[in-house]
Write a structure and sequence with these properties.
4-stranded mixed beta sheet, about 35% helix, alpha+beta, single chain, 4 domains
Length: about 500
């Protein structure tokens, strides 16, 4: 199995064939004012801070080391590594032994699968991971000073939350819909995004967007001449060379990836783009102020233009699009949508239209709300269970529904019963006097029957209550449950 996986990933990670000349590599260089800036030197306290903040994981690299073992090394030994790291930064050189990785495969869905359905995780050299952390901090400062990363990219960035990106997307769609403009949201998925990074194109683009030469040289040394061995159940494959892709498992890989694609929004005109790492959601709207039919025609033209530009960027950056997972959702305030929806193509593939999409863990529907997760048959099962259960609550109804047919939450059960007209309230309480209560009332009546009420100066009003607590439950539409309770009338004048 290890050799089979090695054959697959060796072919996947081979160098791409790119038509030259290419603008990322062959375009003239620009002269930047920070081109000669050097990588700041490493200090001994800085390494100690990184070692202290790291998690003490016990996963072993190819040389049998782990962060847990590094934590046991005497701290004064790290003075030698300070000199090695500074030499690496100044000369743009990394030991070849540091670039040997042990690769394990994680199944994306099913435990038994083919290599195409696995995710390769590279267990990098433990000493190199410390150096990556040092370089990552310096690289982030360059990106911040130059303002390279766009504000619409929220993935793997401090101070940018996933929920903010989702809210901004919903707000943008709602804004277009409030102006009576039909809207299309395209959810783009890139195929094996981290495994498709083009080394030469990435280095060329970094040099052309203002990254200093010293940083580019170190990244070149970090990317080139890497090799890996795949391990499956303790069995190792042969060594394979890696000519594309950034290692999944490195702290620096996500930042390098989003930097390489920092200009993607510039290639997608007429769309509001929202990025989260390798996930892209683009919102397009038809022209405002014209008939709905003409708006839909205009939106179709803009959507096709967007997909053409996306295909161009995909070819230019050598980042293939996963057409099977790229989908679009149509939204509008109109009651009825165009039927059928327009047929647009991305490359040689037709775009799939959907009514709901799970974006970054949150469900979005065509009306910008949470989609209905139950069918009419499921609703009937929930309603039938409510009739079968005595004093039904949401939990009782959910537990009574056959689990093999439907698995819903209490909140979903509550919504379905409300839609069916059920009311969640307490039963009516009717007074029920015991025999002793009736005898006491009869005695009191006999005593006051001959009372001269003209001699009564004042009365004291007292309330006696003796109730039985009945919990709230769902009640059938049009009916109200009545429970007899041992209770006096609310007010008895004595």
């Amino acid at each position: 199995m290890a050799d089979t996986a090695a054959d697959y990933y060796e072919k996947l990670l081979e160098a791409p064939i790119v038509i030259r000349p290419h603008p990322y590599v062959d375009a003239p260089f620009m002269q930047w004012e920070n081109e000669a800036e050097l990588i700041p030197t490493v200090t001994y306290p800085e390494i100690l801070n990184i070692l202290r903040s790291r998690k003490k994981k016990q996963s072993l690299d190819i040389h049998g080391l782990s962060p847990f073992i590094l934590d046991k090394i005497p701290k004064n030994y790290w003075h030698l590594l300070v000199q090695l790291y500074n030499y690496s930064f100044s000369e743009g050189y990394i030991l070849n032994k540091f670039k040997e990785v042990r690769m394990i495969l994680l199944a994306k869905k099913n435990a038994i699968c083919i290599p195409d359905q696995t995710r390769p995780i590279s267990l990098l050299d433990s000493f190199l991971k410390v150096q990556e952390k040092l370089f990552h901090c310096r690289f982030l400062k360059i990106l911040k000073d130059r303002g390279i990363l766009p504000d619409n990219q929220s993935g793997f960035r401090a101070g940018f939350r996933l929920q903010t990106r989702v809210l901004l997307l919903i707000d943008q769609i709602s804004s277009y819909m409030s102006n009576s403009s039909p809207t299309t949201t395209v959810f783009v998925d890139f195929k094996s995004a981290f495994d498709q990074l083009w080394f030469e194109g990435c280095l060329g683009k970094l040099a052309r967007i203002g990254i200093p030469t010293a940083y580019v040289n170190w990244i070149r040394a970090w990317l080139n001449d890497r090799k890996a061995v795949i391990e499956v159940k303790g069995k190792r494959s042969r060594w394979i060379k890696i000519h594309r892709g950034c290692p999944q498992g490195s702290s620096f890989s996500p930042t390098l990836f989003i930097t390489y694609h920092s200009d993607m929004a510039d290639y997608l005109p007429g769309a509001m783009s929202f990025f989260f790492a390798d996930d892209l959601a683009a919102v397009l709207a038809g022209q405002i102020g014209i008939r709905f039919t003409n708006q839909c025609i205009d939106l179709e033209y803009r959507l096709q233009n967007f997909l053409d530009q996306l295909e161009l960027y995909s070819i230019l950056s050598v980042q293939p699009v996963n057409y099977s997972k790229t989908q679009a959702m149509f939204s509008a305030r109109a009651v009825s949508y165009p039927n059928p929806l327009p047929q647009v193509h991305c490359g040689d593939h037709s775009l799939e239209w959907i009514t709901a999409f799970k974006y970054l863990g949150y469900w979005l529907s065509t009306k910008i709300g949470r989609p209905r997760i139950t069918t009419q048959e499921d609703d009937n099962l929930i309603i039938d269970a409510a009739f079968d259960v005595e004093e039904p609550t949401s939990k009782k109804v959910r537990d009574h529904v056959p689990s093999q047919n439907l698995n819903v939450s209490e909140r979903t059960t509550c919504r379905r019963l409300k839609d069916a007209g059920f009311r969640y309230c307490t039963p009516l309480s009717k007074p029920l006097l015991t025999l002793q209560h009736q005898q006491h009332r009869l005695q009191w009546t006999k005593q006051v029957r001959n009372q001269d009420w003209n001699n009564v100066i004042a009365t004291d009003e007292t309330t006696f209550r003796l109730t039985t607590v009945h919990r709230m439950h769902w009640q059938v539409p049009g009916n109200r449950t009545v429970r007899r309770t041992l209770k006096f009338p609310l007010k008895i004048n004595v």
